[in-house]
Amino acid sequence: LHTANLTQHFNQCAAQGEAVAVAGRGSFFAGLSDQPKAMAWAWGQEQPSMRAVLPEKMSSMCVTSDGAFVLGGGASGTLYGWEAASGQLLAAFGAHYGEVLSIAITDDDSRVVTGGHDAIVHTWELWEVLAAGTSTPATRQSWTEHSLPVTCVRCGVGGVAAHMVSVLSLIHI
């Protein structure tokens, strides 16, 4: 598309970039920026298909490749995990010492990568995150060399064997 014309409108979708997560080809989830709620929309539908009240406002969200589970990160540093179909909260634990700014899941759904305001990047096993309840699972790897908040994390293609994680931090000019 090169027209810059509005092609789709989603009612009540007031979310920031990292708090929007695409669930396959059929829908997307968004954590609202002005209140502790998440909503889901099906592509082509203006009205939300699902609404959920959350423990806090989500600053970042991510969905597994099959759309079965949603992860969200809050300003408190808590990482949350839900079952998408039922909305059941499966996990809520302290993942960072500051806001969880970005979440990514590897394309094989084996690992979760989080970046935070504390300038740390963590990797976790997805199944351990979803089974954690309120206990913090062990991280698989952490990078602490950043001096500024980590605002964006992305995983390469190839699952955990790809060994590629992209990280962006705030840069002062």
Brief characterization of the structure:
The chain is an all-beta fold and 173 residues long.
SSE diagram, text form:
Elements: E1 20-23, E2 27-31, E3 37-42, E4 50-53, E5 58-63, E6 69-74, E7 78-83, E8 89-94, E9 100-105, E10 111-116, E11 121-125, H1 126-130, E12 141-143, E13 150-155, E14 165-169
Antiparallel strand pairs: 1-2, 2-3, 3-4, 5-6, 6-7, 7-8, 9-10, 10-11, 11-12, 13-14
Count of individual beta strands:
14
* Helix and strand run: EEEEEEEEEEEHEEE
Q: What overall form do the CA principal axes indicate? A: globular
User: What spatial order of strands do you see in the largest sheet?
Assistant: 1-2-3-4
Mean pLDDT over the full residue set: 81
Return the structural class: mainly beta
Distance between the termini: 33 Å
Tell me roughly what share of residues is in helical segments. under 10%
